[in-house]
Amino acid sequence: MADTKREIERKYEAGPDTRLPDLTGVRGVCDVVDKGVAELDAVYYDTEDLRLAEASITLRRRTGGDDAGWHLKLPVAPGVRDEIRAPLEDDVPRSLAGLVRARTRGAALVPLVRLRSRRDVRHLVGAKGALLAEASTDTVRAERLTGGDGSTAEWTEIEIELADGGDPAFLDAVHKRLRKKGLKPARSASKLAKALQDTGRRPAPPPEPDGTAGGHVLAHLREQADTLVTCDAAVRRDLPDSVHRMRVATRRLRSAFRTYRKILDPAATGPVAEELKWLARELGVDRDQEVLAERLTARIDAVPVTLLLGPVRGRLRAWAGAGRAGSRARTLAVLDSERYAALLDALHTLLADPPLRPAARKDAVAVLPRAILKDYERLAARIDRALALPAGHDRDVALHEARKAAKRARYAAEAAAPVLGRPAKRFVKRVKAVQKVLGDHQDSVVARDTLRDLAIQAHLAGETAFTWGLLYGQEEARAAERERELPRVWAKAVPGKLRRL
Fold it and tell me: Across all residues in the chain, what is the average pLDDT?
């Protein structure tokens, strides 16, 4: 069974004769305790073409020390990683291999580099012996095992790792002391990254945008594809908001394919977009259930206790629990499916050899605004149609279609904001306000359908349906309020300076 540890650390370059400076003067440090020397032997695994290293992910099998076993480290922020551990065994544990499957895409994980380290450990302790951080001086010898000629490298580094639950500000205080003593932050984020660099091989950096429309759109697409793959591991770990972020990445990719079809050939992007639509729909089962449960719980919490008649909370919890279990299982099945694996392969192939059209070679500022304005015109037509319809089912459907158009216009402008600057950011803010009104309206439509079902279940079980009816009426009133609000919010959502770019 794998377990997870949040690792927050700083690394510093050191010479072979460097010793850890005295840190007893750092605020909060009462003592520095010698914990002895450990001999560590770690073999790092990756694909032949360094797909994990490219994403700053490390996977190792380590012996020695007090945490022997398999360690998978996933980046969270600079200097922060989640370390997921599994017991020591010969082969890569399935639990860890599954978390990087979206990166490896079927390629074998092979031994890449062997690092043998002599670790001199000190504990920085505070009042009453509380551990603040672990400071280690590591003397490392690296040997390439795959994809090279057996090259080796040696270096020494100092590592300060914050204790579990510690305040990251403590590392800032230690940093000041080490800098005063002449130590410099390490240029490599991990031992593996330094080993690859020093033995003559490291991942190729992503292409830089070149100012053309194609270069900018491709940079955006690659960023969203990386977000999708990053969220894969987070969804498998059941981290908060991970399904939502993964679903948004699929939508942003689809939106960019559609909006910028003058730049990328839709004949090539179309099949991938359809598969992204399938993935978003499957992820929606989990995400929509989560959002709806939160909405209905909040509505019940706001009802006076005198109006909560019958086992309302219990029935909602049972409904949410049953739906969550089913949707979670379905999501994991999708991520393990051959169809999803094929989608990842197709997306990677598309971005590696993009089907660029002639407009891709033009200046981004000349091309991107026109694409955004087309999405705005599409949104305007849908809102005008919805507002012309009488209240009821047809208007609800039309407003939902307008909501989807608002998302597309917003995503298009967000993608272009790094190039177009303030006019695009201002447009994003205005369209986001429209999307929020339309989104709350659609959430109310979905909530009413569920409330009706819950009322029927309560009635058939011999319970009063009064509270469910009350909540239904509140949602109905909220939807009507959003419909009245929409014209005012929409009047402000004008492209402004985008028309003059």
Answer: 93
